[in-house]
Amino acid sequence: MIVSPPGTTIASFNGKVPRIHSSAFIAPGCRIIGDVEIGPDSSIWYNCVIRGDANRIIIGARSNIQDGSVIHCDSPNPKRPEGLPTIIGDDVLLGHMVMVHGTILEDRAFVGIGSIVMDGCRIESDGMLAAGAMLTQGKVIPSRQLWGGRPAQFMRDLNDAQIAEMQRGVQGYVLNAKAHADALAMGLETSGLGQASGLGETKG
Hints:
This protein is 16% helix and 31% strand. It has one domain (9-186): Hexapeptide repeat proteins (UDP N-Acetylglucosamine Acyltransferase, domain 1, 3 Solenoid). It starts with 8 loop residues before the first strand and ends in a 13-residue tail after the last helix. It is built from one helix and 20 strands. It has one helix at 160-191, and strands at residues 9-11, 19-20, 25-26, 31-38, 43-44, 49-59, 64-65, 70-72, 86-88, 93-94, 99-101, 104-105, 110-111, 116-117, 122-123, 128-129, 134-135, 140-141, 145-148, 153-157. The strands form two sheets. Strands 1, 2, 4, 6, 8, 9, 11, 12, 14, 15, 17 and 18 form a twelve-stranded parallel beta sheet that branches. It is an alpha/beta fold. β19 and β20 (153-157) form a beta hairpin.
């Protein structure tokens, strides 16, 4: 039996159960379905949907998926027998209201607020997609480049200071997630509901 925290849905699909590390933060309003793995100290913020029904979705350590974002994947087919899973590495930042579908985001990738990343795309380590951009099918953002626009195109190279600033944002979200988890736990205790336990198959 899967026990979801109050206000969330964590559900199996076709025998696949979400695997969520015990240190990950899952905010109220999230819907996490099927073949999904979420690593240590990652955070899934309010009202996100992560739907691993057609393929697998993996989110590494310390990555944050901000409020209202949607992550999906693509089914196997004759041209692509493996389909298109969504693989998100470590220390990745996805801004609010991002849509990601069947893509690979390498370690330390950055996706700005309201952006769309389409099937078969890849953002390499330390690559950045600007807010509001659309990365169309099969495109690759090389390491240390900023792309923007609809459709997204190369804008400029990123310097060391800009990359360091991106990672400060990731570190800040790890700390902020712990603060929200504590605040929510305090609210549950005050309301008499107690703390929820058992996020699917948790990994300690």
